[in-house]
Amino acid sequence: MGSEVIFRGQSLPDDIAEAFARAGARLGPFQHHLAWYEEVGSTNDIAMAAATSGAPEGCVVAADAQSSGRGRFGRSWASPPGAGLYVSVVLHPRRDALSLVTIAAGVALAEGIEAATGLRAGVKWPNDVYVGVRKLAGILAEAGSSAAGEHVIVGFGINLQPAALPADVASRATSIEGELGRSVDRGLVLAECLAALASRYQALQRGARDEVIAAWRLRAAQHLGRQVEWDGDDGAQRGIAHDIDSGGALLVRVNDQIVRVISGEVRWL
To answer: Which residue, among 225, 223, 47, 71, has the nearest Cα to 152 in the 3D structure?
Structure first.
């Protein structure tokens, strides 16, 4: 178990090192620094500490298990050993790209999983990757700052294998191997997800916001048109999920109006 950012190929499991070597330059900013852990409390916490101490953009923290993994609103994220990939990356997005980082990450995970395994995955606003009605992966983006400027930690967990999950999670979750009925190469999954994230992030950084949003819409088609509920200023509100706008906000049709939902918890009904 390590405690610092290390260079690619040093002290990595063979399957991870080999996949990274094959991916090479496609990994973009993620090809140079990778810290691998057998188990950590939270990869986001380690990546945040590294970024606050001046770690460069593209540093990757990955683990085989987390004891204190979390999702949005502080919810725990079940991270049993060997069942998934738990990963966090350090990014320094342009200010006008910040609101779309999670959107881009969702698209990238779906694309990377499909490239590595052939499994078609969709996305659901704001931070989930789904197969059918079950959640396959989740994303947690957290912002911070240091003397070098502002940074964003994008953490994601991907379910690779069926695992002993809490009952309330197991009823809503799925895994790549559970869907395919065969084993998958975790190194390839990680490398392809990071390569896709590099591509989508670089698109945001060069101002190609519409390209990322269009890719998200294609992956979100099964969820758009569903009824959603959220807590507004006047209590719980309901409407039909319609689209996202150029800033990544969810657009909801309420009667004959379009309401823009920026943050908070959205319940899909």
So the answer is: 47
User: Residue 144 pairs with which residues in a beta bridge?
Assistant: 151
Between CA 59 and CA 7 the distance in angstroms is 10
Mean pLDDT of the chain: 89
Q: How many Å apart are CA 177 and CA 159, to the nearest integer?
A: 9
Contact 126, 85 (CB under 8 A): no
Which residues, other chains included, contact 35 with Cβ-Cβ below 8 Å and sequence gap of 6+? Answer: 2, 4, 5, 6, 46, 50, 59, 60, 61, 62
Please state the pTM of the whole predicted model.
0.91
Stretch 24-37: mean pLDDT, rounded? Answer: 94
CA distance 106 to 116: 16
Residue reference for tokens 């191997």: 177
Cβ pair 52, 148 in contact under 8 A: no
Sheet holding 84-91, edge to edge: 34-37, 60-63, 84-91, 149-159, 134-146, 128-131, 122-124
Q: By three-state DSSP, how is residue 82 classified?
A: coil
245: Cβ–Cβ under 8 A, 6 or more apart, which residues?
251, 260
Phi, psi of 200 (to 5 degrees): -70, -35
Q: Where are the alpha helices (DSSP H) in 70-174?
A: 101-117, 167-170
Cα 120 from Cα 161, distance rounded (Å): 16
Percent of the chain with pLDDT over 90: 73
In 4-133, which ranges are E strands? 34-37, 60-63, 84-91, 122-124, 128-131
- How far is the C-alpha of 136 from the C-alpha of 128, rounded, in Å? 8
